[in-house]
Design brief:
single chain, 185 residues, mainly alpha, two-stranded parallel sheet, nucleotide-binding, ATP-binding, PIF1_helicase
Length: 185
């Protein structure tokens, strides 16, 4: 038996590959999945596959997948929240995209970031867009330069590696010129 968790991340090509690879692995080209029993587990209300449509949202069926399914079990209930059903209901409303004002206020009240909050020194930030990443990196770099600038205004002696898209620097004539990504200064 092969158990594949987080199947919601799989796209059509992934399922076709699994279908054919298991046939090769089991050396049985005539049975679906080479005769191997598969359990697909996952939650389709979580993240979708990256860069491709989810298998449950296709305009067509995938014969290698849909023609081979023989049972479907959907769990109901919220076992994870059995000790705090109120929190479970609140999370469920967020999941379904229908939180109440009270839900939002409760989450915001529990938020530890206030107007005077200072993030930790080595915080790691994930961003969806490169421009957001670039803005954060620029702010960190400016802060680093401000803290480490020599008293005589000379150039920093430590090397700094820049990871930034479309970075430009002024040359001696004051003209902005593009800087190659991953340049070391």
């Amino acid at each position: 038996m092969l158990i594949i968790d987080e199947i919601s991340f799989a796209g059509e090509l992934d399922l076709v590959k699994i279908f054919h690879y298991t046939k090769t692995l089991m050396q049985d080209e005539y049975q679906p999945f080479g005769g191997l029993n598969l359990v697909f587990a996952g939650d389709y209300s979580q993240l979708e596959p990256v860069g491709r449509p989810p298998i449950y949202n296709l305009q067509h069926t995938i014969p290698e997948f849909h023609d081979s399914l023989n049972s479907f079990i959907e769990l109901d209930g919220m076992h994870r929240f059995k000790d705090d059903p109120e929190w479970g209901q609140r999370c469920l409303r967020f999941r379904e995209g229908r939180p109440t004002e009270e839900d939002i206020e409760t989450i915001n009240d529990a938020c530890m970031v206030g107007p005077t909050h200072v993030p930790p020194e080595n915080i790691q930030v994930a961003t969806y867009l490169n421009r957001d990443r670039d803005a954060i990196n620029s702010a960190i770099f400016e802060e680093f330069c401000g803290k480490n600038k020599p008293a005589d205004d000379s150039v920093l002696m430590d090397a700094v590696l820049i990871f930034m898209d479309d970075l430009q620097m002024a040359n001696q004539a004051g003209t902005l010129v593009p800087v190659k990504s991953n340049s070391v200064f």
